[in-house]
Structure formats: C-alpha cells, structure tokens
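Can anyone check this?
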Amino acid sequence: MTFVIQLTKSEVPTGSITPSSSNISKCQVIYWLVLASACLINANSVADRSDADDEGVDEIIGGTTVARGQHQYMAYLRSFYAGGAGSCGGTVITNRYILTAAHCVQDHKTGEIASKVEVRLKVYTISPMDSGAKLITVTGSSIKPHPAYFSNGAFNSIYDIALIKMTANLPTSDYYLIGKLYMPDYQDTVTAVGWGLTSSTSTTASPTLQQVDFKIGTKDECTSFWGSTYHHEYQMCGIIPGKSVCRGDSGGPIVRYSSGYQIYTQVGISSFVPASINGQALCEKGYAVFTRPSAHRDWITANSCIAGGGFCNHWFDV
C-alpha cells in the first residue's frame, strides 16, 4: 500500500480519520465503526456501567432483526484501554480463535493495544445481556492485531484484521458456533451482521442482533468513490445506499450464503464508513469498506492453529 492516512490530535475530530492534505482530493474522509479506541468512554463511567446498559449499540443500517439461533458464530467484544472501553463484533473461526478488526483491539491514534477483551459467545440480546451468554476474558499476547496495522506512529487500513485467542478450546458441544471462511475474491450480494446503529445520528439502542443484505462493488466502483484510500486486493466495499453497517458494527462478519450447501461463509470484516469533513459518520451513503480475510490467509493460519491450541480453520470456495 502506498497511501497511509496520518493522524494528528489537532487536526482530527473525535471519531474520524482525515486524509493528509496531499491526498484529500483523491480520497474520502473515513470513519471507524468501533465504539472503542476513537470514541473512548470515560474511564470512570466504565467501572460504573453494567452489561445491561449498552447505550451506544443499536441496529445495523436498513436491516432486520435476526431470528434467535441464527449466526451463532457471532461474538460480542468489549475492549478495555487505559482511557476507557468500547464494543465490537467478531467471528468464531476455530475452537480457540476469534477473528475481528485490528482497530477493535488497538487504538489507531496511539497504537495502544487493549489491556483485555471480554468475549461473549451465544449472544442474541445485549441489553439486557443474554443470561446464557458465555464470557471469556482475554489479556496480553492473546490479543493479536496484525503487526503491520500500526507502525511508525501511523495505521495502515489494509491490515485492519486481528485475532483473539481464547483461554481454552471450546468444548465439542460448542462446535456449531464455528464460522467458515471463504477463500476466493467475492463480488455479489452479501449479509452484514452486527449490533450497530440504525443511522449515523442514532441514539436509540436495539437489544438484538441485526442483519442487512447489500451488493459488493467492483474495483472500479469502489475506487471511484474512495480513490487511493481503497485497495481492492485487500478490501471490498458495499454500494447500496441505505443498506450498510454503522458505528458499533466494527469487526463483525460480512457473509455470503450458499443455498446449495446451506452454509454461510465469511468474506469480509467490517472496517470503516464514509464521513463528512467534520468527522460525522455517513453510514447511509453505503460504500462501507471491509477487510478481506482471504488476503490474509497465511497470517491467519500462522497466528491461529499453528501458533498453538485449537484446530485449523477451514477455507471454503463453494
């Protein structure tokens, strides 16, 4: 990648990423979707909040409520930093590992990696939190953002991918939770899943998991909108206005459904959406960008099953 977005505290509004001045005419302003590093909750309020009080989490843009029991591979993540905490989605990809976005576990401004991540499995409602949700707390080196995501004081969005190693293998009774990864590049209709906002300015929380269908754009369509910010070999983008992800959906999966095999396979990870020049997320525009797991197959394999614990994830091309 030749274009790296630079950040300075004096230039960047809270919750937004602004391209450097030399590239502003060639790319769009982008907005991370996580309710974490860029939008940290006050440290004092974190200690006081209960799991039933997730005010920043709402519905996906233009979507519908998921039926209970669908998308069991979804994980609900809370990442904790020195200055606060926030929420993301993730995918169970083996009996030991969660796949998510790097910016869900690493501050894109400072490079600080979360001190701990609370992983909740078997979650349908988050407010109040499902009584049957399984909580796994992960700390230290088990939180693994891609090492190329943040270096030399700047982030590189094509490496917006991370792994979280759970403290023990899931029991065989939980194997139905494990999602499947799709190897070939994909361009067609997909489904986004998450607990994100219903609109860019929404403040009303939805307690349930949401999903929305939309179409993935061609290289030309995505590059025409994003310019040099977008790299098709590592990323994909949606192109349907009013059907997209928004704040709170970061790290969650973009999946395709195979009617022949009756399975979902993951083709993307929610990364960022367009923003106005003053830093306001513009989720309704569409054109959200997603990291391609297939572009990082070797890294995923080397840092999951080969790194110790759990079986290897299965890559599908059906």
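Reply from J.R.: I decoded it. The chain has three helices and 19 strands.
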